[in-house]
Protein: Filamin
Organism: Anopheles farauti
Amino acid sequence: MWSDDEEQGSEPVEATWEEHSQFYRSFSRFMSVSEHDRRETVRVFFIEQDVPVLESSEIDFVPTNMLNGFFLQTHKAEVKMPSGQVDKPVIDDNHDGTVSIRYEPKEEGIHELAVKYNGEHVQGSPFKFHVDSISSGYVTAYGPGLVHGVTGEPAQFIISTKGAGAGGLQMAVEGPSKADITYHDNKDGTVSVSYLPTAPGEYKISVRFGDKHIKGSPYFAKITGEGRKRNQISVGSCSEVTLPGVISDNDLRSLNASIQAPSGLEEPCFLKRMPTGNIGISFTPREIGEHTVSVKRLGKHIANSPFKVNVCEREVGDAKKVIVTGSALKEGKTHQDNVFAIDTRNAGYGGLSLSIEGPSKAEIQCTDKDDGTLNIAYKPTEPGYYIVNLKFADHHVTGSPFTVKVSGEGTNRQREKIQRQREAVPITEVGSQCKLTFKMPGITSFDLSATVTSPGGVSEDAEIQEIEDGLYAVHFIPKELGVHTVSVKYKQIHIPGSPFQFTVGPLKDTGAHLVKAGGPGLEHGEQGVPSEFNVWTREAGGGTLAISVEGPSKAEIEFKDRKDGSCDVSYVVSEPGDYRIGLKFNDRHIPDSPFKVYISPAMGEAHKLEVAQFPTGCVQADKPAQFMVRKNGAKGELDAKVVAPSNNEDDCFIQLIDQDQYSVRFYPRENGIHAIHVKFNGVHIPGSPYRIKVGKDDVDPAAVHASGKGLGDVKTGEKTDLIIDTCNAGAGTLAVTVDGPAKVAMDCTEVEEGYKVRYTPLLPGHYYMTIKYNQMHIVGSPFKINCTGESLAEAGGQETSSVIVETVAKVSKGGNRTGVILPIFKSDASKIQSKGMGLKKAYMGKQNQFTINAGDAGNNILFVGIYGPKGPCDEVFIKHTGRNQYTVNYLVRERGDYILLVKWGDDHIPGSPFKVEV
């Protein structure tokens, strides 16, 4: 409980159970808490007492609608009344492992019950409930379905009409999806109502009696998608038109096309090589009439562009003409294929998209018969209600979304969840000491490196300190406001989560899309051994972080807040198998969540094995490489495979070369970062999977930047674009994905500085654009895009659109000069100190040396040149020893006077040019 003193800022005083006020009215409700003898995982349930029917002069029911089925992790609670005043409920210890919370309402209207643990709200808190007045009438409603629920599960409540007489009861549920309502007359003056929400969001429940809303109606229930798994597929069906003229394959890469409908809706469309050798366009017709196709190269129309294309009625996709047959859209069975058929032959051209959401991620298979008919099979693993969204040409087919009841055996998957409040980190100022922490156990700090790139493009080395065993911090001092890029590499490879976004000054945006997570615990693990990973919420602002682990056994989850906008999470499971780790921030999945993790059996003898002579640096593609594995007396089978960046797998060749020593040869076939899995008796050996660079991999996602109108506020039906700058980032795989309320027509074409992505949204709402370079997020990805305007398609579940491009290496062009544009350096050469004999006197045939200290001179490039009587000297060797400290060695072969020039950028350092006698 909170005492009155605590509200005035003094030390809180914990009340004893005996000090709580006594319960004094027979129709108070009880909420019981069972602690199950476990810390923090406490189950709450709610019992409604039987209320005697009173005389007609008195009210026969006072609803104080409470909730059931939520987690309570506290013994502290308070009630905020409609007037704004705070009241305290009564908490009784039942001395049997449960406690009861009772509250006597003093006002009518919406109340909020706040339940806290360690000063933080528990999941769902504050809970809202409505209190009726004694004189307001007889019809009341109460129950959890008026306040909260979960998609795909019936939400229930009760309406009491005792003594109210005839009047006619009416109910309606409105929300993001249709909700089937069922009700049952209990023959005792109450009616049990159940509705089935099929999409998350806020639902409005109206209860009317005699054409008037009852007290508290309409109610607003928050429906979450908690624990729901989603899978989707898309099947394209496009109209193809051949364009006149001859276009080479090289030209095709730099061309982009868009089609404008008679209504003015303009969308990108795809160019493709037709079997005749001519170029054709592929698009989805949405309207009848003459369309205009524009084909441009670097913003200018090609010959004969724009072209005219006429679309007739039978070509326009019509979802109403799609025929769906099969009982699998009404009921299904677990662990078997449930099949239904789709016939689009009379429905015109359009893309077909299917999503299935339910207690498990149902595996979907699509058999396209190439005649406009398809068979869809889905295989769920858990029983329960599933929601099937089926759209054609961006509109629901008749009957969609379908609610399917799946029966059968489940897989007994266990789920554990914890929830923690994350506070917003104070604003970082220019010139202050900044810190980014991460945990990487079992490595040496010698192989770690970090750089920070400012918004102006200046990159500096950053210092990495080991705070405690396995916990590291990157330290830097920013010189300007804005979003900085922090790259952290281990053995020249970005660690999971890197490159990081680090905002100096106020945050421009907040939300789940800015949360990052990474670490070995999100990739693999071992039963009975803690698996760890990092979560960085600094850029996302304040909010609630929910962590769930689901799999063959229950997880024990531990959470440690590092108080700097990051935390580390550890979990232990007792059974091997496939687990899903869900990370949600403010009820929304963070990027790439849920993570699929395989937990291997206990290591056993595998811990004895060790790897030797593993290739350092990078190896070449299409050439064999090898390393050694020592068994050290372990008994069992060794196997290994190499996984390429494209996820292609190849077996390694293992050969016994000594009594207890094996050679493992692998043959990488593509450039990029490969993972080598080495297992003993089916279990990863220590350090596996090993990561290795193949080829001269200069691909750096930290050097890729996105900008343009397409990342800001956009409008439905309007084509918009953005530029992805890949200059100096190397050649790699660019993948752009857009998640939102509807699919977007999207294309990607090459431009001078990188690639231009264009798309047209059809529904208003929030879209999230993920941009990955060689499978790693660029800084700021995913980007949150707000779209306004009219709805040009039907809503129904999240839709995903993507485009993938193999890029070519690009360099910046500044003015008329070709090549890399240098960053804007901020430096002062006058603050450089130099010392050493080599600045005054030198000896023939020997290494002459001096040192340069540029620690206080900002960042720039050191230039050293030596010119003698007969031209330049033989060699000059500059070594950077860290923190802008340099050692310079040079060798001369002739006697005479030499001139030594030392410049920091464009400016001579103090004393330069130096005169040196040999």
The domain at 829-917 is CATH 2.60.40.10 (Immunoglobulin-like). The longest strand covers residues 459-468. Helices lie at 4-7, 249-254. The radius of gyration is 34 Å.
